[in-house]
Specification:
The protein has 15 helices and 34 strands.
Amino acid sequence: MSRTLLPGKPYPLGATPSRLGTNFALYSELATRVDVCLFDADGNQADCVTLREHTAFVWHGFVRDIRPGQLYGYRVDGPWEPHRGERFNFHKLLVDPYAKAISGRVDWKQPIFGYDVKSSDTPKIDTQDSAAGVPKSVVVDGKFDWDDDCPLDTPLADSVIYEVHVKGFSKLNPDVPEELRGTYAGLAHEASIDYFKQLGITAVELLPIHHFIDEGLLLDRGLRDYWGYNTLGFFAPMSRYSSSGDQGGQVREFKQMVKDLHAAGIEVILDVVYNHTCEGNHLGPMLCWKGVCNTTYYRLIADNQQFYMDYTGTGNTLNVRHPQVLKMIMDSLRYWRTEMHVDGFRFDLAAALARELHDVSKLSSFFDTIHQDPTLADVKLIAEPWDVGDGGYQVGQFPVLWAEWNGRYRDTVRRYWKGDAGMLSDFAYRLTGSSDLYQYDGRKPYASINFVTAHDGFTLNDLVSYNQKHNEANKEGNRDGSDCNDSWNMGAEGPTKNKCFRALRERQMRNFLATLMLSQGVPMLSGGDEVARTQQGNNNAYCQDNEISWFDWQRCPEQERLLHFTRRIIQLRLAHPNLRRRKFFQDRVIRVPGGGKQEKVVKDVAWFSPDGNEVPDEEWGAGWVRAIALLLNGQTLQITNENGQWVIDHSFLLLVNAAHQGVEFALPPSPTGNPWVQVVDTENIADPFACAVTTENVIVGGRALKLFNDALQV
């Protein structure tokens, strides 16, 4: 079939449909020929068109009568010289790096490798056609009725983030129609939204939804990729999560999900993986960038370009130093912001993106480009501030405008509640926004994304229930996953009928949740922790797309109690600006109007020992100290209400005790002179939020916390 080909335009890259046809544009510096191959609905190649125009390394052409829904791929010719990093192979079908939707799955039994896998000489080219084993790109019509949808612009300081998996959240929910479970539509179903609203979260942070593939080794073991950190398309929503098919319907369904969540006041943050791709190292498949222009898209070892730099632990690292790769990332971010209406991004292994040569640099072109882009000026930018390379741990080192997953917070809070010695000083920093990490570089407390657990590691329930990882279901001999053990070693592992053990574990979960929501900074709750979701001790469930990872919506009384506790503690946080300040505590004496011309001298924050006196310097480093009180003076918090009037929030007194035995606290006087009112007690299993006016000393039980405020009514 002969297609009418016009010169078309070199921009925008990708497939852009219009009334008369579709413009195709592909960037490749060293290619000598580029063909667009068109496929029917059954995946059979129907036609191939050679792009004749070549402008600024972009191969382009306008093909008449190509409509949205058309399946296509590229074949790119050029030098096959792997020792120089050049891996062009015209026999291999390639996914468009700018594909807006991707249809089909990788078939590892097909010849999808650029080299001859049967030869002992890995640089030998393979001449078999790979089209039958490669997913197809889809021409997409981007039209969508957004009505009056607009960014919610929830201040980061006022956010409560909920990290959640699109499929796992609703897959087993009986209140979601079966055909929608595990999909974008399922996440935005009224039953899901009602759950989010009752919980009180302000944003969902979705595990990767960029189109990804299943590793062949996982499929051989009867498993598949669940988390999604194996990207094939930076512009395409994962088709697996679509109830509307994979030939464009996934784009519309994703947009509708965002629109519905926004209507409920919930922002959408994407976990994005721009540091590496699914193509692996020199032994990996040829699916996209490797065959489009390998030397452009990947960082290669300078003196042997057959091999790849690997700062990510996946076999390759994207070459963000190259202008086109940086442009691709920026185009992707702008697309998800402007066309898909997402509110923010969490960057996986973000330190890898900031490596100019080998070192991580605040002055990298990646940061510079993001900071000057007006499209991204008001989005939430969250870094996972590490990678696996030397010097890759960069917590506290990212530039202004960026927030960070605070790994120091996670480690410190776990160790404190475990009862480790010498944690008091570091714990105090984490409670008050990690000023040691973020105060002196122009950032605020909300630069710290606080978390105790995340998708990677134990769930909260498993953290307090298991002493060792149990990753046997991954079929790697339990060798995978982190060996770091910050769990609460109680002498009894896993499920138990012992009521004492169950009560202690439940209390410890309340301790972690309360600490998270009462800390300055931005709390991130790992989805399911509010109902004690378990993975049976698996701390690396990346390949468990099954009941190990999915939410179980059948809950026992203990889980219902924990859910109620989580809802109430989130509600408490959101109700009081004193618990989510936008500026760091100065730990200084300030003056506040005290009526008439009188003034009184107060502190905005103070630390007390159990004896009621302020903590002496020598106790901060004392290994035996595990109990402390934190006073947050609400009178020093200058906030205004909707009428522009100055409002004073309640003062709070937080008593924490990580020792095994109870500790008696002498309460310091409240700033207002009112009696302290107990509003939270994690030791009280029946009613942790029972209010009680307190005028005398109080005992905080072993491994428990209590919170007081100075209001006569809560």
